[in-house]
Amino acid sequence: MVMRIEWGDAGGLRAWGDVAGVGRLCSYSIEGTIMSTHEQVTEHKSFSEPDETREFSNGKAEILKIGQCEVGRFTFKPGWRWSNDIKPLAQTPSCQAPHFQYHVAGRLAILMDDGTEIIAGPGDITSLPKGHDAWVVGDETVVVVDWFGASNYARKV
Which SUPFAM superfamilies match (predicted)? Predict the structure, then answer.
């Protein structure tokens, strides 16, 4: 799996990669000439009417299919932990989905397989390679919007 996220020469965030089985190939730029790797059409969707909802212990994943990609809004209740609540669905030792997330609410602790640990909160953006565990810190529900990793997240094997 190859994924690349960088700040483009003309400014703007660009993200693309071979995300087969995890997400879809997407490239975005805020400024500059390239907007995406596919012919773009105007679309408008809202998480108030997701295309798919996957419920699991202590949370849910709401999926929007837009721009030939899938974007997820993940909601994790206090007490949620990937290794307790998603691992039985994924059947992997740690989360194998890479993520590119905007953190809307709550605090999320993330422990990478290499031992690196971070805590992300509202307004933070995280780029996470595969191989991690995560859990809610405190008693506030965590909400994140994920541009990579939503396609198969919490999907029953």
Answer: RmlC-like cupins
How far apart are the C-alpha atoms of 33 and 15, rounded to whole Å? 15
* Superfamily holding 52-146: Jelly Rolls (2.60.120.10)
Q: How far apart are the first and last CA of the chain?
A: 19
How far apart are the C-alpha atoms of 2 and 21, rounded to whole Å?
Answer: 12
**Closest CA relative to residue 72, chosen from 149, 157, 155, 140:** 149
Distance CA 25, CA 14 (A): 11
Nearest to 18 by CA among 39, 34, 3, 28: 3
Q: pLDDT tens-digit profile of 23-67?
A: 444 544 445 555 555 567 899 999 999 999 999 999 999 999 998
Alpha-helical regions (H) of the chain: 82-85, 87-90
Question: Collapsing DSSP states into helix, strand and coil, what is residue 98?
Answer: coil
Domain spans of the chain? 52-146
Residue labelled with tokens 């909601």: 75
